[in-house]
Automatic annotation (TrEMBL):
One family name in Pfam for this protein: UQ_con
Coiled coil region boundaries: none
Domain of life: Eukaryota
Matching PROSITE patterns: UBC_2 (PS50127)
UBC core domain: residues covered: 1-130
InterPro entries in UniProt: UBC (IPR000608), UBQ-conjugating_enzyme/RWD (IPR016135)
Protein name in UniProt: UBC core domain-containing protein
Organism from which the protein derives: Populus deltoides (Eastern poplar)
Length: 130
């Protein structure tokens, strides 16, 4: 199913495994890689931000390397969360963060998922930002 928004286009795949995919581009070390993420929305969403966890290992300034969690204090969109923000906005900002000077050249771990980091409680959409 293709879902278009006025300001960003992306594809939503409604699948059983409920993972999120974002495809990185723009001539960085992330180019050609596919990253899986989980966004977990608690009972207070959208008043409070979702938690965001990379399932695929990634080296980024705002991501805890041990857990894959996006650290709200290091990712302004989560730190300054506003009710009007969407999950789409989070994915778009993460893509911009990948292209930021401090992240675009960082050496990345080998590709692949780590089963130990899978969170079985996450309920999210599977999506690819193009």
């Amino acid at each position: 199913m293709i879902f278009q928004r006025n300001y960003v286009s992306f594809i939503l795949f409604f699948k059983r495994n409920n993972n999120v995919l974002t495809h990185a581009t723009c001539q960085t070390v992330h180019e050609g890689r596919i990253y899986q993420l989980k966004l977990f929305c608690g009972k207070d969403y959208p008043d409070n931000p979702p938690s965001v966890r990379f399932q695929t290992r990634i080296n980024m300034a705002c991501v805890n390397p041990a857990s894959g969690m996006v650290e709200p204090s290091l990712f302004p969109m989560l730190a300054n969360w506003q009710r009007e923000c969407t999950m789409e906005d989070i994915l778009t900002q993460l893509k911009k963060e990948m292209m930021a000077p401090q992240n675009r050249k960082l050496t990345q771990p080998p590709e692949g998922n780590e089963e130990a980091r899978l969170d079985q409680k996450g309920l999210v959409l599977k999506c690819c930002i193009l």
